[in-house]
TrEMBL record:
Protein name per Swiss-Prot or TrEMBL: histidine kinase
UniProt organism field: Nocardioides marmoriginsengisoli
Membrane topology: Multi-pass membrane protein
Keyword annotations: ATP-binding, Kinase, Membrane, Nucleotide-binding, Phosphoprotein, Transferase, Transmembrane, Transmembrane helix, Two-component regulatory system
GO molecular function, one term: ATP binding
Main localization of the protein described in the UniProt heading: membrane
C-alpha cells in the first residue's frame, strides 16, 4: 500500500468568508513552486474574484450525469485518479453527489483520492459538520441536508479557519461579492442575520479550538511531556462533597472567565478517608452547577489525594488549581499538613488557589453545642485522662531514683494541663485525681501503698490536686470565653451580611430563608401565612417541606410565622433568629410595595398617555378643524363672491382637513382598542403580494416611487388583510418620506421555516441604534419639527396591529445606510402559494 495523501481543510462559518478563494490561492502558490496542481471541482457561484483565480490552473473536466431528465455535472473521480496529480483542489467537501455517481458523498471521493496518495485541499462550512448540524438548525431555522462526519475533517493534517466578522460579511453581501443582486436582500433578511453569523462564527471558533487542543494533547503524549503548557487556561476545582463546593465552583468559574474563556474542570477524588466524607447528594448538585457554568465534571480514584489531584491536573494540561481551605482544627495540622499544603508544595508550575470558603461565601454557620468544648472533644479528653497518666507512670518508674518527687509532680501537672486543653474541666479533674493516686502509689514513700509517711508529701499531693483543678478551671474558662467570642463574631458577621443584603436591595425571599437554614444548620425552613379560617399558605421555603408541627415557630408579623425543622435551637440562638424574623418582615413589606407598584404602573402609564395625548392632540386636532371651518365659513359667507376655481380649492381643503381628522380619530380609536384588548382581528390565510400591491398603490397615487421585489414562493400568512395593508401603507409612507431623491424605497419579502418577513427598506438618514425603540412610542416624531404630519401614532399603531396579528415589527440598519423595517408574520399551515413569475415593478415611478 502506498503512502496516504495529506488532507488540508479550509473551514468557514458561512458562505462568503473566502474559503474557495483561499484554496485557489494556495493552489497557485503550490503551482508557482513547481507542484503539479489540478482543480478537481470548484464552484465559483458567479463570484468574479473567485473565477479569476481559476484561470492559470489546470481544470479536470467534469463528468455529466442525467437524473430525472436534467443534466448535472460532478467531479470526474476516475479522470482525476488517472491524471494522478500531486495536489487536487476539491471544493464543497459535504456535497451530495448526483445519483449514479460512484460515491454518494464528495467526502467519500476525497477519501479515495487520499488513499491513492494524492494530496487534497478542500473547503467546508461549520454548518455542514455532523456534530453541530442540529445546533445550526436551531440557530438559523434551516436544516442542512448535506453533512460530513466530524471524523473526516478531524483527520485532516491541516485545518485552517477562514474567519470574518458578521458586519464585514454582511457588507460583502451588500456589495454583491457573494450572491447575485436579486438574492442579496433575502440573504441579509434570513440566513445572514448578525445574530446567526455571530453564533455560527462562535461554533467554528470553538470547533477549531477543540481540534487544535486535540492536536496539542496528542503531541504531548507522543513526546511524553508531563509539564504544563499554558497555551490555554484550564482551571481545575477540587470538590469534596462538602458545603463549600458551590463557593469553590463559582470562584473557579470566575478565574476561568477572567482567563479569556478558559476551561473549567471539576474533579472529585473518591476515597473513604479523604478531605471529608463525600455527600453524594451535594456532589450531584455541584455537578449540575459545574455543567450549567459550561464546565465538565470528573471523578477519579486515588489513595493520596494531593498526588491524585496533581496527576489529573497535569493530564488535563491544567494551569490553575482551586482548593478549599482545610476544615480541620488548627492543632491537628501540626500532625498532618493537610491536602492544601501538600498540594501547594508539590504543584510545581501549576498555580494553586486556596479559598477560605467560610468568608468567601458570605455566610457563617454558628457554633452549636453547650459548654466550652464539643462532645467529641470531651470523649477524647476522657480517653486521654484514663490512658496518659498510667503511661507516664510506666515511663517514670524506671528513673524515679534519678528524679525527685517535685519533678514527678510537675510532669503529672503538665499532663493535666494538656488534657484540660483537649477535653476541658471534667477530663482534667480525672487526670489530676488519677495522677495524684499514681504519685502516691509509685513515687511517695512508702512505695506501692496509698499511705503517706511524710507530711510534706501529703501537702504536696493536695497542692498538686488544687493546682490541677485551678489550671483546668482556668483553661476551661478560657475555652468557654473563646467559644463565646467566636459565636459573638459569627453573629456579628451574620448580622452584617444580613444588613448588607437588605441595604443592597435584595428582596429574594427564598435567598433569605436559605440563609436562615444554613446559619442554624436546619434541614428545612418555611415562611407560613395562616388565615383566620385555619388555612396555611406557604410564602416561601428553603429545603424540603416543613412537616406539621414544626420543631420551632417564630412569629414574623401577625398571621405570618417562620417554621423551622431539623433540630431544637438553643436559647442563645433565638436572639439572632429574631433578627432574621425582623428582616423577613422587611422583605415581605418590600414585596407588597413592589406588588402595589406593579399594580399602579398601568395606571401611571395610562395617565402618562393621557397627558401626552392632550399635549399632542391640542394642536393636531385644532389645525385641521380650523382649516375645515375656515373653508366652510368662506363658502357660506354671503358677503364673499368666489370664482368657481376658488370654491373648488376651498372644498378640496375642507375635504383634506376632514380626511386628516378622520384618520386621526381612527388612529386614536384603534390605539385605545389595542390597549384595551378590544380590537377585532380576523386572521385568515392571505397573499402578501396582493396586500403589498394595495399598500403601495396608496402611496403611488401621490406620484411617489416605490420598488417591490417579493420572492416567488412566498407562502400565505395568517393575518387580517385590512390591518396588514394598513401597517404596510404606514411603513411605506414613512420610507418614502425619508428616502433621498433618486433612491426610492423598496419592499422585499422572504420566508424562513414557518415565518414570513416583509422588509421596507430606505436609504435615508436612518436612526441611531439607541433611539430605534423610541419611534414606536405613541406621540413621538423622531427629529421631526413638522407638526402637520400627525401626532406620532403611526409606528406605535403599526407595531401594535402587527403584534395583534401574532407578528413582530422591528427596525434594522440598512447595509450602506438607512433604515429597514422588518415585519414578521406566521406562515399559514399547508397553504404554500404556487410559485409564479413575479416581475420587479416600479409603482408610480
Amino acid at each position: 500500500m502506498g503512502t496516504r495523501g495529506k488532507l488540508r481543510v479550509y473551514l468557514g462559518a458561512a458562505p462568503g468568508v473566502g474559503k474557495t478563494y483561499a484554496m485557489l490561492g494556495e493552489g497557485h502558490r503550490r503551482s508557482d513552486r513547481g507542484t503539479d496542481v489540478v482543480i478537481g471541482f470548484v464552484e465559483t457561484h458567479g463570484r468574479q474574484h473567485t473565477a479569476e483565480l481559476v484561470e492559470g490552473l489546470e481544470v479536470v473536466p467534469r463528468r455529466e450525469l442525467t437524473y430525472r431528465g436534467a443534466t448535472f455535472t460532478e467531479m470526474d473521480l476516475d479522470a482525476v485518479l488517472a491524471r494522478r496529480p500531486a495536489v487536487v483542489l476539491v471544493d464543497e467537501l459535504a456535497h451530495s453527489n448526483v445519483p449514479g455517481s460512484r460515491n454518494e458523498k464528495r467526502w467519500q471521493d476525497v477519501e479515495e483520492l487520499l488513499a491513492a496518495g494524492i494530496e487534497v485541499i478542500t473547503t467546508v462550512n461549520v454548518q455542514h459538520l455532523e456534530s453541530v448540524n442540529d445546533v445550526v438548525e436551531k440557530i438559523t431555522g434551516a436544516a442542512q441536508q448535506e453533512t460530513v462526519p466530524d471524523s473526516v475533517v478531524r483527520a485532516a493534517d491541516q485545518i485552517e479557519l477562514r474567519d470574518m466578522t458578521a458586519e464585514a460579511l454582511r457588507r460583502r453581501l451588500a456589495h454583491g461579492n457573494v450572491y447575485a443582486p436579486e438574492k442579496i436582500d433575502a440573504a441579509l433578511a434570513n440566513y445572514f442575520r448578525i445574530g446567526n453569523l455571530n453564533a455560527l462564527r462562535e461554533l467554528a471558533l470553538i470547533w477549531t479550538a477543540d481540534r487544535v487542543d486535540d492536536a496539542l494533547q496528542q503531541y504531548r503524549e507522543q513526546h511524553d511531556i508531563d509539564s504544563t503548557w499554558e497555551a490555554r487556561e484550564r482551571v481545575v476545582v477540587a470538590l469534596t462533597g462538602g458545603p463549600e463546593g458551590e463557593t469553590l465552583i463559582r470562584r473557579a468559574a470566575r478565574v476561568a472567565a477572567r482567563s479569556s474563556g478558559g476551561d473549567l474542570l471539576a474533579v472529585h477524588v473518591a476515597r473513604s478517608e479523604g478531605l471529608t466524607r463525600a455527600d453524594q447528594g451535594a456532589l450531584a448538585r455541584q455537578r449540575l452547577l459545574v455543567e450549567s457554568l459550561g464546565g465538565s465534571y470528573h471523578q477519579v480514584l486515588g489513595h493520596d489525594i494531593p498526588e491524585s489531584l496533581l496527576e489529573f491536573a497535569r493530564a488535563e494540561n491544567a494551569t490553575q488549581l482551586v482548593l478549599g481551605d482545610s476544615r480541620r482544627p488548627a492543632w491537628s495540622r501540626l500532625l498532618n499538613a493537610g491536602v492544601a499544603a501538600s498540594t501547594v508544595r508539590e504543584s510545581g508550575d501549576i498555580d494553586v488557589h486556596i479559598v477560605n470558603h467560610g468568608h468567601a461565601s458570605g455566610r457563617t454557620t454558628l457554633p452549636v453545642g453547650r459548654g466550652s468544648v464539643s462532645r467529641r472533644r470531651k470523649i477524647r479528653g476522657y480517653l486521654l485522662a484514663v490512658l496518659l497518666p498510667p503511661l507516664l507512670a510506666l515511663i517514670l518508674v524506671p528513673v524515679r531514683d534519678d528524679l525527685n518527687l517535685v519533678s514527678d509532680m510537675l510532669m503529672f501537672l503538665l499532663l493535666t494541663v494538656i488534657v484540660s486543653l483537649v477535653g476541658g474541666l471534667g477530663p482534667a479533674l480525672v487526670t489530676a485525681v488519677l495522677g495524684s493516686v499514681l504519685l502516691n502509689y509509685y513515687f511517695t514513700p512508702p512505695l506501692r501503698t496509698l499511705s503517706i509517711r511524710d507530711t510534706n508529701n501529703a501537702l504536696a499531693l493536695v497542692i498538686f490536686i488544687l493546682v490541677g483543678m485551678l489550671v483546668s478551671s482556668t483553661v476551661d474558662l478560657a475555652a468557654r470565653r473563646t467559644r463565646q467570642a467566636a459565636r459573638a463574631a459569627a453573629e456579628s458577621r451574620t448580622l452584617a451580611n444580613l444588613a448588607g443584603s437588605v441595604l443592597a436591595g435584595s428582596s429574594a425571599l427564598t435567598e433569605m430563608l436559605e440563609r436562615v437554614r444554613e446559619t442554624f444548620g436546619l434541614s428545612a425552613v418555611a415562611l407560613l401565612e395562616r388565615t383566620d379560617e385555619g388555612g396555611v399558605t406557604v410564602r416561601g421555603q428553603a429545603g424540603p417541606s416543613v412537616p406539621e408541627p414544626a420543631d420551632v415557630e417564630v412569629p414574623v408579623e401577625p398571621g405570618v410565622v417562620l417554621a423551622l425543622h431539623g433540630r431544637v435551637l438553643e436559647a442563645q440562638d433565638h436572639r439572632l433568629l429574631g433578627a432574621f424574623a425582623a428582616q423577613l418582615a422587611v422583605v415581605l413589606d418590600r414585596m407588597r410595595l413592589s406588588e402595589e407598584a406593579a399594580a399602579a404602573a398601568p395606571l401611571a402609564e395610562a395617565n402618562k398617555m393621557r397627558t401626552a395625548l392632550l399635549a399632542a392632540v391640542g394642536h393636531d386636532l385644532r389645525a385641521p378643524l380650523a382649516a375645515a371651518k375656515a373653508a366652510v365659513s368662506s363658502l357660506r359667507s354671503p358677503d364673499i363672491v368666489l370664482p368657481p376655481d376658488d370654491r373648488t380649492e376651498l372644498l378640496a381643503a375642507a375635504d383634506e382637513s376632514l380626511d386628516k381628522l378622520a384618520a386621526l380619530v381612527d388612529n386614536l380609536l384603534d390605539m385605545s382598542r389595542l390597549q384595551a384588548g378590544a380590537l377585532s382581528i380576523e386572521a385568515e390565510p392571505i397573499a402578501l403580494d396582493e396586500v403589498v400591491a394595495r399598500a403601495v398603490d396608496d402611496v403611488a397615487v401621490q406620484g411617489l416611487p416605490v420598488t417591490v421585489d417579493l420572492a416567488e414562493d412566498l407562502p400565505l400568512v395568517l393575518a387580517d388583510a385590512g390591518l396588514a395593508e394598513r401597517v404596510l401603507a404606514n411603513l411605506v409612507a414613512n420610507a418614502v418620506r425619508y428616502a433621498p431623491a433618486g433612491s426610492p424605497p423598496y419592499v422585499t419579502g422572504s420566508h424562513l421555516g414557518d415565518v414570513v418577513q416583509l422588509r421596507v427598506v430606505d436609504r435615508g438618514p436612518g436612526i441611531p441604534a439607541a433611539e430605534r425603540e423610541r419611534v414606536f412610542l405613541p406621540f413621538q416624531r423622531m427629529g421631526d419639527t413638522d407638526n402637520t404630519t400627525g401626532i406620532g401614532l403611526g409606528l406605535a399603531l403599526a407595531r401594535g396591529l402587527t403584534e395583534a396579528m401574532g407578528g413582530t415589527l422591528e427596525p434594522e440598519e440598512t447595509p450602506g445606510g438607512g433604515l429597514t423595517m422588518v415585519m414578521t408574520l406566521v406562515a399559514a399551515p399547508d397553504q404554500a402559494r404556487d410559485p409564479g413569475r413575479r416581475e420587479r415593478k416600479e409603482a408610480g415611478g
